[in-house]
UniProtKB/TrEMBL annotation:
Catalytic reaction equation(s): Fe-coproporphyrin III + 2 H(+) = coproporphyrin III + Fe(2+)
Record function comment: Involved in coproporphyrin-dependent heme b biosynthesis. Catalyzes the insertion of ferrous iron into coproporphyrin III to form Fe-coproporphyrin III.
Organism: Blastococcus aurantiacus
UniProt name for this protein: Coproporphyrin III ferrochelatase
InterPro entries attached to this UniProt entry: Ferrochelatase, Ferrochelatase_C, Ferrochelatase_N
EC number: 4.99.1.9
Subcellular location field: Cytoplasm
Record's keyword annotation contains Metal-binding: yes
Listed SUPFAM superfamilies: Chelatase
Positions contributing to Fe-coproporphyrin III binding: 90, 159
Annotated keywords: Cytoplasm, Heme biosynthesis, Iron, Lyase, Metal-binding, Porphyrin biosynthesis
Stretch list, region Disordered: 1-37
Residues that, per the record, bind Fe(2+): 224, 310
Gene name in the database record: cpfC
Keyword Lyase annotated: yes
Amino acid sequence: MPRAIVDITPAGQRPDEDPSLAVRNNGGVEPSSAPAPAGRREALLLLSFGGPEGHDDVMPFLENVTRGRGIPRERLEEVAEHYHHFGGVSPINDQNQALLAALEDGLRSAGIDLPVYWGNRNWAPYVEDVWQQMADDGIEHAYVLATSAYASFSGCRQYHEDVARARAAMTVDAGAAGGPTAEKLPHYFDADGFVRANADALAAALAGLPDDVRDGARLVATAHSIPDSMAAVAGPEGHAYEAELQAAARLVVDRVAPGRSFDLVWQSRSGPPSVPWLEPDVNDHLKALAAAGEKAVVLFPVGFVSDHLEVIWDLDNEAKGTAEELGLTFARAATAGTHPAFVGSLVELLAERRAGGEPRLGTNCPASCCFVPPRPRPTS
Ligand SMILES: CC1=C(CCC(=O)O)c2cc3nc(cc4[nH]c(cc5[nH]c(cc1n2)c(C)c5CCC(=O)O)c(CCC(=O)O)c4C)C(CCC(=O)O)=C3C
Ligand SMILES: [Fe+2]
């Protein structure tokens, strides 16, 4: 069941205009540079996007995702078809559960005794309900691990907002001022294990190509397109989404084939055609490569952490189809998923934050960093 939404940002207001709105970082909790206080009851919360579990969930899920964001109905109906193609079930929930289990193992191996919870922005288990659960279990502080490695409204700021909404809901529903406090873990696009996981996958995809095209194959990194206006405000100086992706893709390629060139292109564009989003689209890029005489491509979706629906539909179905039509040999590298090196880096990220030190970007973001004002809601 879709959950009632507690409003946290008055429509049309920006935190840089009204500093009182800036408290949404970590749900209003200032990240500390001191080590975690001894005896505090803590948890790790895996915070993700969420996905439908069956046909009837698809439309309510899509309405949750796009509430207030001006996505045309036709786009929703088209995307709904992608989900219905898989029985209305997104693979993202199973993938998060697998990551959860891997994190539990990873924490145990590292000798860190913390319970792990899972909550989502757009579908059950909703972050609001998990917050209540954590409070019931006596958790006082949650480290929030978002399933995005990068800056941007969608990948960073919106997860801070989710925490703020969950804490606001606890205040409204239970009269319990906010429940557990929280700290979102920093961006991890350049974490060694994330890079290693992507590099292993890229090497495996390359190894699967026929010998005669392998060395000449074009390496193409992909990430979710976002509106130009969202890209312009990502990170403290703007354009951090593209910059972090560029850096991550470079690190990945250098581990497989030092210095080899690659392209960074965009997938899964949404929104009305009148609104500019990051380009080129991966399908247009494949056409340009074929026209330039390229014979083979390896796509590596470094912008995502698991092979969820936007990866398996938009790449394994659409982009692969485009490549076939063009006569391009095609391979797609896996995402980081539950690669042990990736999980190891996530555990390290948590351990570092518990040890204190200057909170990095993603934990402590300037007030207007990545901020995209919601579209004014109709007043009733
Ligand atoms: C940057 C970014 C990431 C990566 C960071 C992160 O992972 O957080 C991401 C991830 C994901 N996006 C996902 C799904 C969708 N995204 C949509 C819409 C949008 N995404 C956007 C950006 C991103 N999205 C934007 C700017 C919009 C327009 C609406 C808005 O301004 O907010 C829509 C609406 C329909 C459509 O128009 O496509 C859907 C269904 C799923 C789940 C897949 C599954 O179910 O397996 C995942 C992991
Ligand atoms: Fe998305």
